[in-house]
Amino acid sequence: MNRHPYLRAFLAGAFLPTVALPLALTAFIVLRLVMQVPFAIERGLVFPMGLVPVLWGLWNMLWLGTHGRTHLRLGLHGALLPFLLLPGGTLLGSSLGVLSLGAASATWFNAVSVPYGLVACLFTAALIGYYLVWKYIVGFVNRELALMG
């Protein structure tokens, strides 16, 4: 089964965020509209829901294309993705005016201020999470689609 390996790699990479993001949106809608919990991030939900699955699919295609030369483990490759997402998201958020960077904290939507120490802790947690998700879930889907042994 060597037909269209990059298409299968894209689908394998996009699988998890395509399943998880609608579930997260459902939880957000229940919390926000049914339980009346105030959130100031509604405006920032739609764009990532369209972009994240595509980025994961392209990242998995990149792994498939470079794995023969780099021999990089899938989990480690996945853990590198936040190093692109954080600066890219920061640049995009700052450009669109939804993120402002202060001396001690970042402020989203002029409502949520997060100290940089907490951002560093969350980024470290994201690295660990991405490593585990890519190693076990994306790796499983890759094996099921015969992309890796």
Per-chain topology:
Elements: H1 5-34, H2 46-70, H3 74-80, H4 82-96, E1 99-101, E2 105-108, E3 112-115, H5 116-144
Antiparallel strand pairs: 1-2, 2-3
Helix pairs in contact: 1-2, 1-5, 3-5
Oligomer: single chain
Strand-residue proportion: 5-15%
Structural class: mainly alpha
- DSSP E strands, number: 3
Distance between the termini: 12 Å
Report the major sheet: 3 strands, antiparallel
Return Rg in Å. 17 Å
Note the run of SSEs as H and E: HHHHEEEH
Poorly predicted segments: none
Total domain units: 1
Give the averaged pLDDT, no decimals.
90
Percent in helix:
over 70%
Shape: globular
Strand order of the largest sheet: 1-2-3
Give the count of helical stretches: 5
Characterise this structure:
- This protein has helices at 5-34, 46-70, 74-80, 82-96, 116-144; strands at 99-101, 105-108, 112-115.
- By secondary structure, the chain is mainly alpha-helical.
- The chain has one domain.
- Strands 1-2-3 form a three-stranded antiparallel beta sheet.
- α1 (5-34) packs antiparallel against α2 (46-70), α1 packs across α5 and α3 (74-80) runs antiparallel to α5 (116-144).
- The longest helix is centred in the N-terminal third of the chain and has 30 residues, at 5-34.
- It is globular.
- The model has no long low-confidence stretch (mean pLDDT 90).
Could you give a short description of this structure?
With 149 residues, this protein is mostly helical.
Q: Features of this protein?
A:
149 residues, mainly alpha, 3-stranded antiparallel beta sheet, 7% strand
